[in-house]
């Protein structure tokens, strides 16, 4: 039942991401590459071998995220054919936000904070900041689709998750800024200690980041039941009898595509 239709996509996305965070965290702690006090998620993926696992599997998560968000887009566009323009615009906006958030996840995976910090921070802002906006857009879509296409319960669940993620994200960035102001001199940020100053604000920031990431991932679990009712296929049209021969007619006249990918 869990893997009926395309429901396996959000499940794989969440499980792959969680597994990446946990495995990287365990390896980093065992090897003493990060402080035993609650580190940032990215801190656990800055040094090899954990950085290799962190980067590889977050890239997989980014691909799964794009696939999941695209299926969500197609689901809404197909089930709400001919509905109000605002719903259509919200749906397209959600897809664009989802692509940027997934791009940010790939940037976090490939640019470690200790090597290219500006790019890494930009990626983190896209994942968390744009990701939270994506969650609110999807929540708004759910409310506009109620009661014709979904129930009120799922709307409230998505709203609650989105609010928790937003609150935690704000606390993350505010506390991080305070900790940078209070820190004494230049330190290794992956091994922040109480005597370095700004430690309390740092811990609040790291815990809030974990809460933001976990709640944002849990948001995708709310897609599972919807995706159980979805199938997505690709139809290939061969234009020639022999692959060394050029097609004699225009491709656009041959392809029988009922709905374009971004309809």
Written description of the protein model:
The protein is mainly α and 263 residues long. It has helices at 8-30, 50-79, 85-110, 117-145, 152-182, 199-221, 224-227, 251-254. Helix 3 (85-110) packs antiparallel against helix 4 (117-145) and helix 4 (117-145) packs antiparallel against helix 5 (152-182). It is globular, with a radius of gyration of 22 Å.
Short description:
The chain is mainly alpha-helical and 263 residues long. Helices cover 65% and strands 0% of the residues.
Sum up the overall morphology in one term: globular
- Most strands sheet: none
Q: What structural category arises from helix and sheet content?
A: mainly alpha
Overall mean pLDDT: 88
List the keywords.
8 helices; mainly alpha; 263 residues
Q: What topology does this entry show?
A:
Layout: H1 8-30, H2 50-79, H3 85-110, H4 117-145, H5 152-182, H6 199-221, H7 224-227, H8 251-254
Helix pairs in contact: 1-2, 1-6, 2-3, 3-4, 4-5, 4-6, 5-6
């Amino acid at each position: 039942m869990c893997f009926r239709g395309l429901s396996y996509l959000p499940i794989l996305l969440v499980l792959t991401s969680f597994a990446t965070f946990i495995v990287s965290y365990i390896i980093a702690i065992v090897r003493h590459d990060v402080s035993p006090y609650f580190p940032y998620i990215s801190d656990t993926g800055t040094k090899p071998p954990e950085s290799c696992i962190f980067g590889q599997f977050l890239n997989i998560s980014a691909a799964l995220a794009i696939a999941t968000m695209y299926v969500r887009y197609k689901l809404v566009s197909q089930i709400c054919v001919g509905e109000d323009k605002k719903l259509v615009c919200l749906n397209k906006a959600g897809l664009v936000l989802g692509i940027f958030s997934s791009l940010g996840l790939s940037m976090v995976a490939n640019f470690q904070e200790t090597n290219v910090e500006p790019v890494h921070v930009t990626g983190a802002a896209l994942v968390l900041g744009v990701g939270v906006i994506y969650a609110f857009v999807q929540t708004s879509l759910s409310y506009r689709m109620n009661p014709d296409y979904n129930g009120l319960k799922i709307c409230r669940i998505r709203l609650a998750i989105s609010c928790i993620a937003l609150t935690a994200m704000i606390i993350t960035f505010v506390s991080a800024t305070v900790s940078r102001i209070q820190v004494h001199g230049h330190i290794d940020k992956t091994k922040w200690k109480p005597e370095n100053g700004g430690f309390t604000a740092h811990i609040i920031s790291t815990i809030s980041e974990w809460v933001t990431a976990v709640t944002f991932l849990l948001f995708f679990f709310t897609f599972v039941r919807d995706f159980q009712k979805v199938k997505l296929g690709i139809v290939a049209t061969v234009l020639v009898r022999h692959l060394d021969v050029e097609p004699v007619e225009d491709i656009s006249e041959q392809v029988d595509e009922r709905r374009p990918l971004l309809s």
